[in-house]
Design a protein that fits this description.
- This is Late sexual development protein.
- The chain is of the alpha+beta class.
- The protein has a four-stranded antiparallel sheet with strand order 1-2-6-5. The protein has a four-stranded antiparallel sheet with strand order 4-3-7-8.
- Helix content is about 45%, strand content about 15%.
């Protein structure tokens, strides 16, 4: 009896919820170097581009580029390219693991459906890179080169959960990108980037279904800033492996760890930590834990139960779920001084540690 694609997806989701946790396994790239791909990406020739477009079920935009691009617009495109390169590496490894049925990645009856979906996604991400880097090249700017990567996933379930989280961050960051384009009269790029927002949102709905979540998390998705995304991407980059990440003039925060792993949809205290060496001369009495969720103003909370243990500072902060219905992605950061912030940009300016990424569904 022929299994429908929807049923196949449900079977994959059922498998994912029961997938074992084990040491990370993949024979694709033990040293974290994923490029170039067999199709020549990221420096594909015309034949390689045609192959990618066939796999993506669509083409690169063929309209004329804008006549000018601001300095902030250049930074936007560089960040987009950096992120999309990371995503191509991630999905390339996931496809390898599913194709070869590496332990934890044998999806049974849903296998073919998943591979078809993932192959479309990775080719679409490749086109996103080619589009951003192509625009940079058009304006005589240096294209962003791939780094080496390490993905802390152990099975299909953890891979899809990670994909869902970083896609949420992308959806928030592209809001910031479009606003910056608009502020700097780079309006000729807004339509294309907004089309990518839609593409990433379709992917996110799929990842959520694979985790047995509702397809849509919130009426207004959580916003983010470029600096938060720039920092989060580097959690998966092998330090020192990026040829030209230094050309991206964005801020990198010190790491903030969300120590509480299972966070239900209710008011509670969440435990965080950061390294004492990163605190420098900062006083924890001047620090606040600030949350971003949805399109609300940042939520600022005072530290509670501060403890120094080993090399780390541990603390708790209230998570006011009931007041704000903090579903989907919440971005947490340690900020200095202020008891309130007008918007995400002001919060990022005051941030020292972050982002801590919290998912509630």
């Amino acid at each position: 009896m022929r299994t429908s694609r929807f049923c196949a997806a449900a079977l994959v989701a059922s498998f994912a919820s029961a997938a074992p946790t084990a040491k990370r396994q993949s024979g694709l790239s033990p040293d974290g170097n994923y490029f170039p791909l067999p199709n020549g990406f990221p420096d594909s020739n015309r034949d390689g581009e045609i192959t990618i477009q066939d796999g993506a079920h669509g083409t690169l935009p063929n309209g004329p580029p804008p006549t000018a691009l601001s300095a902030e617009g250049v930074t936007n495109l560089k960040l987009i390219a950096l992120n999309e390169l990371f995503e191509v590496a991630f999905f390339t490894e996931l496809i390898y693991n599913v194709t070869n049925k590496v332990s934890g990645y044998d999806l049974g009856m849903g296998h073919d459906y998943m591979l078809d979906s993932l192959n479309a996604i990775v080719n679409q991400e490749e086109l996103h890179v080619l589009n951003a880097n192509g625009a940079l090249e058009h304006f005589n700017q240096e294209k962003i080169q791939p780094c080496k990567y390490n993905f802390p996933v152990t099975d299909f379930q953890s891979a899809i959960a990670l994909a869902g989280t970083f896609t949420d961050v992308v959806l928030g960051t592209l809001q910031d990108v479009n606003q910056i384009f608009a502020k700097n009269q780079d309006d000729g790029l807004v339509r294309a980037v907004t089309s990518v927002v839609g593409n990433e949102a379709e992917q996110e709905g799929f990842f959520r279904l694979m985790q047995k979540k509702r397809p849509s998390s919130q009426p207004f998705l959580t916003t983010a800033t470029r600096d938060f995304a720039f920092t989060a991407i580097q959690d998966f980059i092998i330090e020192g492996s990026c040829p030209n990440i230094g050309t991206i003039p964005l801020k990198r925060f010190k790491p903030l760890t969300v120590e509480t792993k299972m966070i239900p949809a209710e008011d509670q205290n969440i435990k965080f930590s950061f390294y004492m060496k990163d605190a420098g001369m900062y006083d924890t009495n001047d620090m606040r834990l600030t949350y971003l969720n949805g399109q609300n103003q940042p939520i600022v909370k005072t530290f509670e139960n501060v403890k120094m243990e080993g090399e780390k500072v541990f603390f708790e902060a209230p998570f006011p779920y009931d007041d704000f219905l903090m579903n989907g992605l919440t971005i947490a950061a340690v900020t200095m001084g202020a008891e309130e912030f007008e918007n995400a940009d002001k919060m990022a300016e005051a941030a020292v540690f972050g982002p801590g990424l919290i998912e509630v569904d």
